[in-house]
Every structure is written in C-alpha cells, then in structure tokens.
Amino acid sequence: MNGARHAPEAERTDFLAVLAKVCLVTFLTSLGIVVLYPLLWMALNGFKTNAEIFGNPFALPSGFGVANYISAWNQGIRNYIATSVIVTVGSAICTVLISAWTAYGLTRSKLPGKPFFVGIVLGGLMLSPTVAVIPLVRMMQDLGLYNTYWALIILYTAFRIPFTTFLIRAYMLGLPRDLDEAAIMDGASERQIFWKVTLPLCKPILVSCVILHVLFAWNEYLFAMIFTSGADLQTLPVGLTSIMAKHGTNYAVVFAAMTLSALPIVITFFAAQRFFIRGLAEGIGK
Amino acid sequence: MADLSLRNIRKAYADFEVLHGIDLEISSGEFIVFVGPSGCGKSTLLRSIAGLETITSGDLIIDNERMNAVAPSKRGISMVFQSYALYPHMTVFENMAFGLRIAGTPKSEIDERVRRAAEILQLDKYLHRQPKALSGGQRQRVAIGRAIVRNPRVFLFDEPLSNLDAALRVGTRIEIAKLKRSMPDTTMIYVTHDQVEAMTLADRIVVFNDGRIEQVGTPTDLYRKPANLFVAQFIGSPAMNILKGKVVERSKTSARCLLDCGVSFETEVEPGRLSQGEAISVGIRPEDVELHDGTATDLAFTGSIDLVEHLGEVQILYLDLPDIREKFLMKAGGQSTFERMQGICFTVRRQNLHIFDSSGNAVRGER
C-alpha cells in the first residue's frame, strides 16, 4: 500500500533527473560544438581551394591534399613556429623556476615582514603590460636586447611571475611541513629540500603553470609585435598577420597557416590535460 | 651511546614562554617517555632536542658537547614523525637512503645499511614500492627504518602510533619494544599522550604540565607514588578519585583528617607537614577500592551506584557518595552483578590512600 503510494513520486523524481541530465548534456554538447566547430572548419578549409571556400564554405573539401599546408609551412610558418617555440619554452622554464623558488621562499622562509613581500610579488598581477610598453622599449633598446629572443623571454617571464607564483604558493602552502623537517633531519640543505623534496611534489601545479604560460606566450601579440621586427624573429601571432597581409586573397593558405599555428598548443594541452586539471584543482582549491 | 642533559631549557615564541626551565638527565641507552596533556610542551621539547626549534635559553648537552647551535643532522639524532613524513615521490628504498645519499655515503654501504634495516623491520619485500602503496603500519616501519639507517645516538619518536588503529597500535608498540632491546645502547625519547604506551615502553616517564616537569620516575613510581595531584590524576585509567577534606586534629607525628563525605581517618605525618584546619585532598585509585559487607570500621565508605560500565573482565561503577558532587569510580570484577541505585559499602587500605596538602603536593605519611 505504502509502496504503491510512493511509486508515482519516485517515477517523477526519476523523470526530473533524466530531464536535467539531458539538458546538461545538450548544453555541454552545444558548447563543445561552438568551440570546436570553428577550429574544425578552419582545418578543413586548409584542404580546399579558394573557389571551394567561396562556393560552398561549409561543405567538406573535395580532397585532402596537403599542398596548402606545405605552401604555408614554406612561406614562413616554419620560422614563426621555431621562434615561438624558443620564446615559449625559454620563458616557460624561466617563469616556472623563478616562481617556484619565490613561492618556496614565501611559504617556507622565516623572512621578517613576509606578508609585505607576498603583497609586492602578488601586486604585480595589477600591472598592465600596455602601460609599461614605452619605458620597456627604451630599456630594451638601451640594453641592446631590442629585436632579440631575449626581449620576449624576459618580458614574458617578468609579467607572468606574479600569477605563476600565486598558483605555486597556494599549492606549496598545502604541502606538509613534516616533509621539510624530515629532510632537515636527513641533513638536506635548503637547496636540496627545494630540488629533491618540494619541487617533485609540486609536479601537478608546475605542469598547470607551464601549460598556462605556454597558452599565454604562444598567443601573445602586443609585445611580440612591438619588440621584434623582421620575419626571422617574429612569433606566430605576428607572423600570421604578415601572412594574412601578404596572401590576403589566398584564404586556403591562410587557413592552413592558422591550423598549423594552433596545432602544437592543442597537442600540448591534451597531452598534459590530466596534470593541468589536478594541479589547478589542488592549488586554487586551498 | 649518548648521555643527554637538559639544563634549564626555556623556549619562548615572542613573549609567550612555553617551556619554563626544563632540567633533565637522561643516561645512555635509556628509554624515556614524555607524557602530558595537549599543549604541555612535550613535543616542543622533543623538537628542541632535534634542532627543529631553537632553544631560547639553557643548554642541551649530548655526550658532554653543547648542541644548541649544532645543525639537526649533525647532532646524531634521528626522529620518527607522527605523520611518518615519508617522501611520497620516492620508493621505500629511496626514502630510507635519502639521508645517507645527502651525507655522501658510498653506494654499496647505502645499499647494505638500507637492506639490513629493511630486514629487521620486515620491509625487504616493499623496497621498490612507493609509500602510497603501503598500509599505515608499514609506513610507520619505513619511518622507523629511515631513522635506523643513520645509526643515531639518540632516537626521537613524536607520537609515532597515534595515526594507527587500536590493533595495529598494540602490534607496533611491541615492535618498538623489541627494537629497543635490539639497540640497547641507543637512547630513545618517546612522546605520547597514551598512558599504556608510556607505562609499557618506558624505563622512566617524564610527566609534563604547562611547560614544566611535574615528576620523573619509573612507571611504577609514578603510579604508586605520584608527587602531586596532577600526576596522580594523569597517570592511571580511569583517573584517581580525589576526595576533599581537612585536618581536624594535628598531633606531633600524626593528623586526623575528615573527608567531606563524612569519613575520617588518622595518618602519620612528618613534622612540618599539614597544619590543623588545612584543606587536604585524598586520592583513591578505582582499582584500590574493596567492597565489604558493612562490618568494616576503618575507612568505611557508603554510596549508591549511579552507572555501571561493563568492560568484559571488569566493571566500572560510578558511585554517588554523600555530600560529594563528583562521581566516585571503582573497579569491580566482571562476574558480579550490580544495579543502578543499589547501595554499596566499600573500604580502602590505609597504604593505598594518597594524601595531598593544600598546595597539591603529596604527603607521604603512610609510605
């Protein structure tokens, strides 16, 4: 009797749960399509001819010839990718190492007035790159670094240290102090504790920071445009605009170039996605 | 082999002093247990000995060498942490070898020492596992192994069993006792708040309260001859019953005391101790209480049962005594049957009374 009375109620709850799930899945699928479809469309158009692009922009290409991709590769993309890789890898290593060491100092040292130093480092988050452009140009010219890889590596490192330190510091605050003390009892110096104990334990957040930095440095446009000139030192975003200016009418090559420029970053993200999510969840969640 | 001497050790954080002048002599090969309630300073003292806390003033002497300013790793001390503090990214072997590698010990010697320690602790099968793949007891053994491989002069344990479940705790406690037997020359200092660990492991127990040592002695001494009310109530489970009273008559060698529950008794007292009218406290351990049929004349108490706790082999009776607000606890055999509100008569042998003066210090009249 009791069971019969409860049955319609249970059915209604089940129906609502299924409906909510269907809505959620539909929403997420739509969101996925909105994000992924333009990328797919861009990659597919790289296989078409100009006529196909204008004739039927949303159709599949008639063939999957890689001529446009080869052409884009030979028209400078190769150099732009090489420059982007050098600048991104260089600045990522510098940023993460300096930030990790800073975060270690801010979380582990008995520095007097530590909150003040934390404030100074994290205050860098407020600094707008645009405001500092003119003095930075003068500085780089005076130092002889203008139009070199170093200009971009130094700038990317300097402007990303506050945010990266903020993430790593949050993660390090959650690491047990007992491990440091055990290492002290084992005779390890501060340097050895940092390299052999703390840094390996920070792997998830370090990977997250590297990915975030790569996303930033790979796509950064303002500094790359201002501090470099000449095709051999331009990064991908600046190079792509040059290609678009040069081959404004050959959209197929432009699409192929854009696809090639996006590819490394997409591969990097998917390869390290597991660490990325774990690092951010553990770091920021505290 | 290491004699350890603490001389007037003080530790303060800014203006807040947590250790108020600790004096203690520990002989080589002794197993010393620090006990006390939370926040009494026992762990702070242990960490000060280890070098993880700086000593504000006083001297820490190990084998006639002042160690206050010596780096923790150079003191010849190993420490086992409450949380094990194993490096999670290293294997058991690497955890145990870490200190030796830092010290630049040759690889072959590291290998030999780690394997020997692993054999003693039955960890040989797990050397290539990471700590996350081990049980709590195994992790604790790795932490002990990491301390053993360094051949320390002094072994420090900071509540090493508190993260283990009850059954594992007993097993590991026995392991530690065996370990001590196998290292007779190594001085061991063990911090715990578990009395059973303290009583079973220690050569001597040091009872701490509020940053001071209340009493140092063998487990039996502390149990049978507590120096003051704090030790009397801290050692023993359930805690000692304390009955208030006063001295009603004082002669040259004895004092007649009247307890608030109406029982009076006479006790021998040294000259100069206890004055007429002085408030006293009398301690009676629950296990020293003896039931009687109402015919006893000396130290005959009466009360009624408020609660009975059955613990299997014993029962703990919570009694209401006349004019006493606190419950009086007694232990009785597991076979007898007791009921709530049942009237009960009991007595205590004179030599099992612990008498404390108005400032809480023991008066050893009967001892």
Outline the secondary-structure elements.
The complex is a heterodimer of chains A (286) and B (367).
Chain A lengths: L1 H44 L4 H6 L11 H42 L5 H10 L9 H11 L5 H25 L3 H9 L4 H12 L1 H17 L2 H6 L8 H11 L4 H21 L1 H12 L2
Helix pairs in contact in A: 1-12, 3-6, 3-9, 3-11, 3-12, 6-9, 6-13, 7-8, 9-13, 11-12
Chain B lengths: L3 E10 L2 E11 L4 E5 L6 H9 L6 E6 L2 E2 L10 E4 L11 H11 L4 H14 L15 H13 L5 E5 L7 H17 L4 E5 L3 H7 L2 E6 L2 E6 L1 H6 L4 H6 L6 E10 L3 E6 L4 E5 L10 E6 L4 E3 L8 E11 L3 E7 L7 E6 L9 E6 L5 E3 L5 E2 L4
Parallel strand pairs in B: 3-8, 3-9, 6-7, 7-8
Antiparallel strand pairs in B: 1-2, 1-4, 4-5, 9-10, 11-12, 11-14, 12-13, 14-20, 15-19, 16-17, 16-19, 17-18, 20-21
Organism (chain B): Mesorhizobium retamae
Family (chain B): Belongs to the ABC transporter superfamily.
Protein name (chain B): Sn-glycerol-3-phosphate ABC transporter ATP-binding protein UgpC
Characterise this structure:
By secondary structure, chain A is mainly alpha-helical. In chain A, α3 (67-108) packs across α6. The model of chain A has no long low-confidence stretch (mean pLDDT 87). Chain A is built from 13 helices and no strands. Chain A folds into 2 domains: 2-45; 69-284, MetI-like fold (Orthogonal Bundle). The two termini of chain A are 50 Å apart. Chain A has helices at residues 2-45, 50-55, 67-108, 114-123, 133-143, 149-173, 177-185, 190-201, 203-219, 222-227, 236-246, 251-271, 273-284. Chain B is an alpha+beta fold. Chain B has 2 domains: 4-234, Rossmann fold (3-Layer(aba) Sandwich); 241-363, Nucleic acid-binding proteins (OB fold (Dihydrolipoamide Acetyltransferase, E2P)), CATH 2.40.50.140. Chain B is built from 8 helices and 21 strands. Chain B has helices spanning 42-50, 92-102, 107-120, 136-148, 166-182, 195-201, 219-224, 229-234, and strands at 4-13, 16-26, 31-35, 57-62, 65-66, 77-80, 154-158, 187-191, 204-209, 212-217, 241-250, 254-259, 264-268, 279-284, 289-291, 300-310, 314-320, 328-333, 343-348, 354-356, 362-363. The radius of gyration of chain B is 25 Å and the shape is elongated. The model of chain B has no long low-confidence stretch (mean pLDDT 90). The chains are: A mainly alpha (286), B alpha+beta (367).
